[in-house]
Structure formats: C-alpha cells, structure tokens
Amino acid sequence: MSARNRKNKEVVFDKDGLLNVFKPPGMTSHDVVYALRRRLKPRKLGHGGTLDPVACGVLVCLVNRGTRLSQTVSKTPKVYRALALLGIKTDTGDVEGKIEEKSPVRLEGKVIESVLADFTGDIEQVPPMTSAIKVDGKRLYKLAHKGIEVERPARTVHIERLELVSFMPDPEYPRALLEIECSGGTYIRTLVEDIGNALGVPATTAFLVRTAVGQFDVRDAVNIEDITLETAGGLLAQMQ
C-alpha cells in the first residue's frame, strides 16, 4: 500500500448516522455536503432536504449508512420561520430575485391572521420555477436560468400549523413573521406568495430559517467549521 493510500485510509470516517448541521445563508446544500466530505472523507455523504442558498437553518446530513434514510428525512415534517415582505413580488419569490411588482400596501396584523386558517391542512401548491424538481426530465431551476417557464402540476402538501409570530407595520411595505409547521416538500416562498394573493397584495420572502426537521432543532445545529474528524463521531445521531 502506498503512503498516499495509507494516509487516505487513516482519515476515512466510517461511522454511520445523521448530523444536524447549521446551513448559513449564501451556501447551497451541496456546498455544505462538499465541505463536510472534504473534512471527513466518509464512504458516503448526502443530505435529507434542500435549503435554498438564501435560507439558513437545519440541514440534516446523512453519513455512510445514514444515507439509506434520505427519503425518510426528506418526508419528515419541518418547521420554518419566514419573514414575508408585503407589497413586493419577485421572479424568485425572495428578495434575491428581480422585482416584478411593487405596490405600497396598508395592512394590519389582524387582517393577515384572518386568512391564515385557509392555508392549514392539505393545500395545493404549484412548484416554483426555481425548484429542483423535474418536469419532462428537466430540472425546473435550470430551465428558469434560461428564461424558460413551463407548466407545473400542482402538488398536495400539508400545513399542520401556520401562525403570525409578529407584525411590523410600515407606511408602504409592512412585514409579517410567520411560523410554519409543514410536511416535507412544502415550498415556503410559494406559500408566502399565495398568502399575499389571498390578501390582494404582492408578497415575497425576505428571510427564511428552517428551525426544525423532525427531532433535529436549530438550537442544537452545529456550524460546519466545528465538525471535524475528532468531533463528528460525538455529534452523530440516529432517527427516533
């Protein structure tokens, strides 16, 4: 065995389980997986549910035989906090996109609360063009980058809980902080836009954090730089 192979064998991480990782804004979920793969050099490494680059929070990473739970984690209920910016709509559903509509609005918190009940239980959502799902074998976000928009079939998702945490009035563009407990596969940016439609105003997501994925809570999530060969074994968890 060459010295290089011996070295590679020494640094391979062979334990199995799940890591509760805090994904910071600006990184893709793939970026997080790539960074951990370079640090740990496991046999296999993946994640259980994509977070958009502009979002942050819990990203459950699957290590070695933990990758067998990919579908289970993806379908696990999730909790988000989303800051809805009212009066503005963009082509991506968040503040990183191009503004398509801008119209100052006057709203009170109680008006927002009055429509939230309509978005609980099973609801239909049309996936955004910026999503990673495939239509006719092509990723939607890749088509969107080319300026192509296609028909997308609606999907049923489940909203277990939808609450107005706080309301920030503004003469033109008020904001509403929402907490959402929902099924896997729910598009929060689409939900925010649909709530805006119900209110008769444009809306976009100004900030999004995933605070929980099943048993994994953001308060326990670990920063990427704190996950090393020495610490990773003690941070691994199993599905409950």
Describe this structure in a few short sentences.
24% of the residues lie in helices and 33% in strands. It has helices spanning 3-11, 29-40, 70-75, 109-116, 140-145, 188-199, 232-235; strands at residues 17-23, 45-47, 56-63, 78-86, 88-90, 99-102, 121-125, 134-135, 138-139, 155-168, 175-182, 203-213, 216-217, 222-223. It has 240 residues and is α+β, with helices and mostly antiparallel strands.
Account of the 3D structure:
This protein is of the alpha+beta class. The chain has seven helices and 14 strands. It folds into two domains: 3-75 and 214-235, Pseudouridine synthase (2-Layer Sandwich), CATH 3.30.2350; 78-213, 2-Layer Sandwich (Pseudouridine synthase), CATH 3.30.2350.10. The protein has helices at 3-11, 29-40, 70-75, 109-116, 140-145, 188-199, 232-235, and strands at 17-23, 45-47, 56-63, 78-86, 88-90, 99-102, 121-125, 134-135, 138-139, 155-168, 175-182, 203-213, 216-217, 222-223. The strands form three sheets. Strands 1, 2, 3, 4, 7, 10, 11, 12, 13 and 14 form a ten-stranded mixed sheet that branches. A two-stranded antiparallel sheet has the order 5-6. Strands 8-9 form a two-stranded antiparallel ribbon. The radius of gyration is 20 Å and the shape is globular. The model is unreliable at 1-8 (pLDDT under 50).
